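Annotated sample (chain length 265).
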Amino acid sequence: MFRDYTILLWLLKLGSLINLYFLVNTGLLASGNADAYIVLPAQILFAVSAYRCLFPVRYEHNVVFHDSILSSIFVTRLFATFSEIAYIFLFSHVLRLLNIDHVGWVIALSWLMVVQVVISQGLVWAALLTEQLALYYYEELGWFLIFLANTSASAYLYLTVGGVGSREALLRLNMLFGIVYLPWQVIHLTTLRASAKSNSGKRGTGSPSISMRLATGLKRAVLLKTRRTDADSWGGLIGLTWMTGYWATLIPIWVYYVLRVLCPR
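Output written by the structure step:
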């Protein structure tokens, strides 16, 4: 097992080429009568994912691969906020498009996915600015709920709603992702909980006020860069699979496939 991720982090940059290819092709699709609610979120995801592949960071302990102005924890988190809300909105929009019978609870669940991703953004920002690692656990629990909702609604539509033709493949893909991701996320949540427990109680009773801690956290997110290449600093195997799947392969390919099905040339 690799204990140093230098080579792997360099290889991650190949994901930027994949995302840029998708971004260019998405621009070609957008030149027609493509659905803006599909195209724009996809463009945001591809652009931000390309950036994150080139300048990877890890929020916990402000870990960066390059000690560069572009490896900014604050800027990366800002971009990621828009990207994550955008692509979850895209997935929720797909559910509504395929819900041709307008089943009420499916519509509600699709919008709850968007609400939950916004809540998760608040939690990850709070975790970043206060260094309360327990908040990362609750943020990731929100992602578990998002994809549980996406998988459940997709399974229902696949089994009960006809007439979507080739778009049924999108429902199958949603279910397949859920079958793989949800158990993986349980493992991820377990490691986050253990990490949060090991770091609990390290702050004394004389800690600064919330406003001072937020100001310090913001300054740290903007300025502090801790260059590391060891596996532990990047979250080990869980962190590596997360970065590779989210930024470079699985999520971008999935979103591009949605585009090709729903916005054919």
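Annotation: The chain has a mean pLDDT of 91.
Annotation: The beta strands are 57-58, 63-64, 226-227.
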